[in-house]
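>> received
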Amino acid sequence: MAEVQTGFNAAYKTLQANAEKLRKQDDLDIDSLVPIVEESAKAYGICKERIAAVRAALQEHLKEGSPEQEDAADIPL
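>> returned
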């Protein structure tokens, strides 16, 4: 198996590729399953960490009472 890249996009592509490999297998090859699962677990962890970091950054940026949010509340929709 290829080394999982550290960026979200590369890790997400790894997950997509591995899912497609598993979908296309006519006969389940147990010997190839373990490395695919291990690679996918690493890729999933990277994606999960990046999503958590974005959520944390957004929460920090959008805290209630922040000047940016108060200014945005004055903009008519």
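>> The longest helix spans residues 30-61.
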